[in-house]
Write a structure and sequence with these properties.
This protein is mainly α. The chain contains 6 helices and no strands. The mean pLDDT is about 85.
């Protein structure tokens, strides 16, 4: 995940980082798999690409006259709108984190000087904030957008970190340096 470097800085005992991230990602994976299984079982083959849309028809326990209880409308509104609010609140934070990581990759050792320059920082912030909006504007189909975003997220989370670890270790060994670092654990041994 692109937030790992900035989140890692806050942890005093760096030896615990891999266990913390493994636990956090495992809990998230189990939670999402459980939620996905329950939703798929409940809605069956008629499930929308964005399953929150299926809740529009939710009625809950009805009043004696057959009308919907007032709080059920609140439940429906919350479930249907939650993904939009969630993405809208997380988007700026993700854009800032991603722009910091891109700046660090681009400027390398001069990163701390570059981040003091307003224009340089603004360019990276605009790239990470505006580019996804432009790309998403080519499709009004939420399913298509989430499909590609999910695919990119999968690659970023589960493919690139192991590849980065593998090639980093390979380069260190080629240069005659010890590939075991302060952050090494048995889970990251790629030999």
């Amino acid at each position: 995940h692109h937030s790992v470097p900035s989140l890692s800085q806050l942890v005093n005992n760096k030896k615990l980082l891999s266990y913390m991230f493994i636990l956090a990602l495992s809990i998230a994976a189990i939670g999402y798999a459980t939620l996905g299984g329950i939703i798929a079982d409940y809605f069956g083959n008629g499930i929308s690409a964005s399953c929150n849309i299926n809740w529009i028809s939710y009625k809950g326990i009805l009043n004696s006259d057959g009308t919907m209880k007032w709080y059920n409308k609140g439940i429906v509104g919350f479930i249907v709108l939650f993904p939009a609010f969630d993405v809208a609140s997380a988007f700026p934070l993700n854009a800032i984190t991603l722009s910091n990581n891109l700046m660090s990759s681009y400027y390398g050792l001069e990163m701390h000087e570059a981040e003091k320059n307003f224009n340089k920082k603004l360019i990276f912030r605009l790239i990470t904030a505006i580019l996804p909006i432009i790309i998403a504007s080519f499709s009004s189909n939420l399913g298509v957008i989430t499909h590609y975003a999910g695919l990119a997220g999968f690659l970023i989370a589960y493919s690139y970190p192991p590849l980065l670890a593998y090639y980093s270790k390979k380069i260190l060994i080629e240069k005659g340096l010890n590939p075991n670092t302060y952050y090494s654990t048995k889970y990251l041994d790629l030999s």
